[in-house]
């Protein structure tokens, strides 16, 4: 993954659609909020990460490109 | 996950703010999914805006998908779907989600609870269980709607109930008209009451329809462990009901949820 992501915890309702779309990037914690998986192993493709963010029902995921520019939400 | 192009072959306002869409697949022309899964629809391609919609049809119909959408929120997704006309093309990726009947649940009583458009994936699951899989175990549905004029698919579920003895359903209106003869209030209270009743006293008349499947000597714990819940709709109903089910002793592993908003 070259994109980086941030979950806005207050907005997250734990709908888990991000987990369904990009399971190597997001997981739900014990409070049913999405958190970013810190992993050095297998990663989701950038387009899956962007799709996960674009399909989040509460726009709780921000996506940044390699240069640190926010690409979602616009 | 796969990208699809589909053509709107039918679009109807079926009641209140609820719209039904039949999308005939163009490319590819077949889809494989599990009942209860959803698709991610492109709503505004240029802006990257997408929305999730559960598939209301059963997987056996692989050449098309049906959607049931509540356009009340009036956001980009609602506007886009409301204005789609037969013949127009749409793009989506699918399938997604784990809100599917788990193998571990198939020998249990299956209890489905929907509010509003949350009926969409549950319709797919119930049709798949009854018609495709010829499931014999007890299936029960509670569907919470606001007003009588919002209701649709009532006759369809009534017909299923007549045809399949193992299926029973209740419509619950939160704002019923005067002299409404059926259930009213919130689905939560009805389900909790039912869960308590059927676990404490399985021989009560309301539970007669599946009594043959159960041993009245079972302990309360055993009976509760034979129930699997599938909840779909708004997060308030899901969170409240999940908490209350846990309070009456239902194991978390037996509660499956899909939050729409
Ligand atoms: C996994 C999943 C499956 C879904 N499946 C369906 C489906 O089958 N049918 C369907 O109609 N919707 C479904 N939704 C909801 C759908 O994705 C959109 O959120 C909904 O259509 C609103 O989109 P919008 O762009 O019109 O409004 P937005 O601008 O996105 O939302 C406006 C506001 O309305 C709220 N809202 C969203 N839905 C509702 C609602 N039904 N009633 C009241 N307020 C609402 C939102 O929380 C937000 O505050 C699903 C959501 C998820 C996460
Ligand atoms: S899709 Fe959005 S709301 Fe749902 S868990 Fe992920 S971040 Fe939270």
CATH H-level homologous superfamily name of the largest domain in chain B: Nucleotide-binding domain of ferredoxin-NADP reductase (FNR) module
Biggest sheet overview of chain A:
3 strands, antiparallel
Instruction: Name the helicity range of chain B.
Output: 10-25%
Give the rounded overall mean pLDDT of chain B.
Answer: 90
Low-confidence stretches of chain B: 202-221
> What multimeric state do the chains show?
heterodimer
Uncertain ranges of chain A: none
| Molecules bound to protein | flavin-adenine dinucleotide, iron/sulfur cluster
What order do the helices and strands of chain A follow? EHEEHEE
Structural class of chain A: alpha+beta
Number of domains of chain A: 1
Number of individual domains of chain B: 2
CATH classification, class level of the largest domain in chain B:
Alpha Beta
Instruction: Quickly count the helices of chain A.
Output: 2
- The secondary structure category of chain B is alpha/beta
* Count of discrete alpha- or pi-helical segments spanning 4 or more residues of chain B: 6
Characterization of this structure:
- The complex is a heterodimer of chains A (74) and B (261).
- By secondary structure, chain A is α+β, with helices and mostly antiparallel strands.
- Chain A has one domain: Alpha-Beta Plaits (2-Layer Sandwich), CATH 3.30.70.20.
- In chain A, 19% of the residues lie in helices and 23% in strands.
- Chain A is built from 2 helices and 5 strands.
- Chain A has helices at 17-21, 46-54; strands at residues 4-7, 26-28, 34-36, 61-64, 70-72.
- In chain A, the strands form 2 sheets. A 3-stranded antiparallel β-sheet of chain A has the order 1-4-5, with helices on one face. In chain A, strands 2-3 form a two-stranded antiparallel sheet.
- The radius of gyration of chain A is 11 Å and the shape is globular.
- Chain B starts with a strand and ends with a strand.
- Chain B has 2 domains: 2-96, Translation factors (Elongation Factor Tu (Ef-tu), domain 3); 103-259, Rossmann fold (3-Layer(aba) Sandwich).
- Helices cover 24% and strands 33% of the residues of chain B.
- In chain B, the strands form 2 sheets. Chain B has a 6-stranded antiparallel β-sheet with strand order 4-3-6-1-2-5.
- In chain B, helix 2 (119-132) links the parallel strand 7 and strand 8 (139-145).
- Chain B has 261 residues and is of the alpha/beta class.
- Chains A and B meet through helix 1 and helix 2 of A and strand 4 of B.
- The structure holds flavin-adenine dinucleotide (FAD) and iron/sulfur cluster.
